[in-house]
Write a structure and sequence with these properties.
Keywords: Fatty acid metabolism, Isomerase, Lipid degradation, Lipid metabolism, Lyase, Multifunctional enzyme, NAD, Oxidoreductase, Peroxisome. It is built from 28 helices and 17 strands. The chain has about 700 residues and is α/β, with parallel strands linked by helices. The chain folds into 3 domains: about 260 residues, 2-enoyl-CoA Hydratase, Chain A, domain 1 (Alpha-Beta Complex); about 180 residues, NAD(P)-binding Rossmann-like Domain (Rossmann fold), CATH 3.40.50; about 90 residues, N-(1-d-carboxylethyl)-l-norvaline Dehydrogenase, domain 2, CATH 1.10.1040. Nicotinamide-adenine-dinucleotide binds next to helix 12, strand 11, helix 13 and helix 15.
Length: about 700
């Protein structure tokens, strides 16, 4: 970590220590050591009466350097630096301009006062990585703002803004002018008051009068988070603040923190954090790749997806024309968009004025000619190659030169769609997920001839829309849906082999998904998969039979389950179970039972295997890209890190052996371990060891 510095200046008796460890002043070993020695020098200097800790750049301190977690500790450790800081004989004031997060806020809490700028954000987000604060935060924060608020803040992991920080007593003053100067004045005033008062001096133990309020919140939180050991740890550690003296309570915090660092659930969450960050590095693109300007958009189709995508543009301040073939469909689509906003206004998450402003950015139009002015066109018409080819061929004629031509297709060959144009360099996929205005993931599909500047612009645009873009290549279903198809096929196979829908769904929710695959199919509508299967020659004997019987899921009141009178959770239907048993018999299958673990393996390992093929073919650049897609588009449980990380945690040799067993039993050779998976398994490696193609 070369170049890490703490700049030191002495201004009128105050040592101003300015942290500079770009990009976010992470508290890695270098910065910790530099703070320690700068502080030591300031304390030893007789002309210094007080100290200000400030930071260069927009962030005070973004947090610990989490890449150091799980590596051997290197002194000085943060808790030790903070002990020396709050034990300093001269007052230290933190000047917080921007974000003070995690270890950064713990650093500020060890100071004797905190002065914040209007853009400051103060938070302890450790809980989101499966951890708890580990450098005194769980003890200092409750002493400053009360155990109940402190617990709530650490439990949510969300930062508070400057005003709130002052209101709750976390910050001492909000300064809109020169922040360092204000902190300096504050520090001098403290110096006049004698020995500095530490946060811990507010009580050797937490105030017993506040205990009941805290206990109610803690019990509730632990009950709500059965699979999250860090929530229980957080409650225990704050509780320790009532029962033990500060020194001992901090030791308890450290022990629990270190145990969580080693917990596989936290490891998975940290892995996912880095994997997501890594997706921004798209092979073949760089900061220097030119971008195209996007100031206006057109969306073709005002259906489920087109409407949601149009809202994304309007929300991001980009004027958008929504195009349909007929006025009636357009009116229906516009009414749905208005209704979506209206329900946000009703919920209180959007103001009436903001709704009007956003609606003002949406123009409805009939006829493709209306796409002529747009810098980007996103097509979200029916999922039929003929329709898409007609639209893109017309866009060749209509769209302005340099406009990006994107399709939201779920499965279709974007190279073929590009062939329909005279400008394949401008064509790419922007695969949004439903509901498009809510879901964060966008698969940005790079077709064979997509120009680098078009691809870079597609990625940047997705970020502007508040989305998480992951770049993938062209194949049937891209990354997410291609793997999902494997899970669906495995689900059918399980039904025929002896499992019932509720058993499969229970195993999957127990694994950590919010919904099982069959409840999910019922919610989305069974006709979606049916239509795709009919178009591609696929077969799913049980689901097909249900569709033929008019059982399309929740919308028809019946699917894999029964939904009497609009019920949202289904109940078992003996008719469906009889149908499944009949279908097994027709296929000559003797039914047997499956344990939940076996169900999960049979559903998920074929997906992992498909993921390996996706990597070998270069459809995804890294296993982490696949995991990011599954975590953000398909509700894969975050603490399991995504399918590829999960397979790594099982061990690829065991995964390969299971897949061989499934292939032998079913006679389906596509279940055999993919060459990449087989090779890694044989070499005793993990997907995360894979160096790329
Ligand atoms: P939809 O049927 O709800 O909407 C399609 C709309 O396009 C209809 O309103 C239709 O009138 C309009 N349309 C058809 N041809 C047109 C044309 N030539 N010009 C202008 N408008 C035309 O379908 P949807 O669910 O919104 O799906 C749209 C696309 O998005 C499909 O390619 C689909 O595969 C894809 N997609 C859907 C989902 C999903 O969950 N529904 C998710 C991701 C991607």
């Amino acid at each position: 970590m070369g170049g890490t510095v703490v700049r030191q200046e002495i201004l009128g008796g105050v040592a101003v220590l300015t942290l500079s460890n770009p990009p976010v002043n992470a508290l890695g070993h270098g910065l910790r050591a530099a703070i320690d020695s700068a502080l030591e020098a300031a304390l030893a200097n007789d002309s210094v009466r007080a100290v200000v800790l400030a930071a260069e750049g927009k962030v005070f301190v973004g947090g610990a350097d989490i890449s150091e977690f799980g590596t051997p500790p290197r002194a000085p450790l943060l808790p030790d630096v903070l002990d020396r800081l709050d034990g300093a004989g001269k007052p230290v004031v933190a000047a917080i301009y921007g974000a003070a997060l995690g270890g950064g806020l713990e650093l500020a809490l060890a100071c004797h006062a905190r002065v914040v700028g209007p853009k400051a954000k103060l938070g302890l987000p450790e809980v989101k990585l499966g951890l708890i604060p580990g450098a005194g935060g769980t003890q200092r924060l409750p002493r400053l703002v009360g155990p109940e608020s402190a617990f709530a803040m650490m439990l949510s992991g969300e930062p508070v803004d400057a005003k709130k920080a002052v209101a709750m007593g976390l910050a001492d003053a909000l300064e809109t002018g020169d922040l360092v100067e204000a902190a300096r004045t504050h520090a001098l005033k403290l110096a006049e008051g004698g020995a500095p008062v530490r946060v811990r001096d507010r009580g050797e133990r937490l105030d017993p009068a506040t205990r009941a309020g805290f206990e109610t919140k803690a019990t509730e939180a632990v009950k709500k988070a059965p699979g999250q050991p860090n929530v229980a740890a957080l409650a225990d550690v704050v509780r320790a603040g009532f029962d033990l003296p500060f020194e001992e309570a901090v030791k308890t915090e450290r022990t629990r923190f270190l145990a969580l660092v080693d917990d596989p659930r936290s490891k998975a969450l940290r892995y996912a954090f880095f994997a997501e960050r890594e997706t921004a590095r798209v092979p073949g693109l760089s900061k220097e790749t030119p971008r195209r300007e996007i100031a206006s958009a057109a969306v073709i189709g005002a259906g489920t997806m087109g409407g949601g995508i149009a809202l994304c543009f309007a929300n991001a301040g980009i004027p958008v024309t929504v195009i349909e073939t007929e006025q009636e469909a357009l009116d229906r689509g516009l009414a749905r968009m208005r209704a979506t906003y209206a329900s946000s206004v009703k919920r209180g998450s959007l103001s009436e004025a903001a709704m009007e402003e956003r609606l003002g950015r949406i123009t409805g139009a009939v006829g493709l000619d209306n796409a002529a002015q747009a810098d980007i066109v996103v097509e979200a018409a029916f999922e039929e190659m003929g329709i898409k080819e007609t639209i893109f061929s017309a866009l060749s004629r209509i769209a302005k030169p340099g406009a990006i031509l994107a399709t939201n297709t779920s499965y279709l060959d974007i190279d073929r769609i590009a062939d329909a144009t005279d400008r394949p360099g401008d064509v790419l996929g922007l695969h949004f997920f439903s509901p498009a205005n809510v879901m964060r993931l966008v698969e940005v599909v790079r077709a064979a001839r997509t120009a680098p500047d078009a691809l870079a612009t597609g990625n940047d645009l997705a970020r502007r829309l508040g989305k998480l873009p992951v770049t993938v290549g062209v194949c049937f279903g891209f990354v997410g849906n291609r793997m999902l198809a494997r899970r669906s096929a495995a689900g059918e196979r399980l039904l025929l082999a002896g499992a019932l829908p509720h058993e499969v769904d229970a195993a999957v929710t127990e694994f950590g998904f919010r919904m099982g695959p069959f409840a999910m199919s019922d919610l989305a509508g069974l006709d979606i998969g049916w239509r795709t299967r009919k178009a591609t020659g696929g077969k799913a004997p049980v689901a097909d039979a249900l569709c033929e019987a008019g059982r399309l899921g929740q919308k028809t009141g019946k699917g894999f389950y029964l939904y009497p009178e609009g019920a949202r959770t289904g109940s078992r239907d003996p008719e469906v179970e009889a149908l499944i048993e009949r279908t097994s018999a027709e296929h000559g299958i003797t039914r047997r039972s499956f344990s939940p673990d076996e169900i999960v393996a049979r559903l998920m390992l074929p997906m992992v295997n498909e993921g390996a093929r996706i990597l070998e073919e270069g459809i995804a650049a890294r296993p982490g890209d696949i995991d990011t897609i599954w975590l953000n588009g398909y509700n894969w449980p975050a603490w399991r890190g995504g399918p590829m990380h999960w397979a790594d945690s099982l061990g690829l040799a065991a995964v390969a052996a299971d897949l061989d067993r499934f292939a032998e039993e079913s006679g389906d050779e596509t279940l055999r371990p993919a060459p990449l998976l087989a090779r890694l398994a044989q070499e005793g490696k993990r997907f995360s060891d894979w160096g790329g193609r």
